[in-house]
Amino acid sequence: MTFEVHAQGAVHVFDCFACAIHRMAPICEHCRVQIIGQGVEVEGHWFCGGHCARAEGKVGIVDHV
C-alpha cells in the first residue's frame, strides 16, 4: 500500500513513513540533523532548535519546553 504526500505543488509517493521522512524532512542548517517534529524556521532557514539558530547568529529565538 502506498500513500501520497502533496507538498509545494509536487506529489510524492511512498510505501513507508521512514522513506517519507528521509525524503521530506528539512535539514538543520547548523548541525545537519534531519528535523523530525518541531523545528525553528528563521528568515527562511531551518534549524532543529533555538540553540542551533542562535549559533548561526539568529536573535530572539526561544525554545519552549
UniProtKB/TrEMBL annotation:
Highest taxon in the source lineage: Bacteria
Name assigned to this protein: Prokaryotic metallothionein
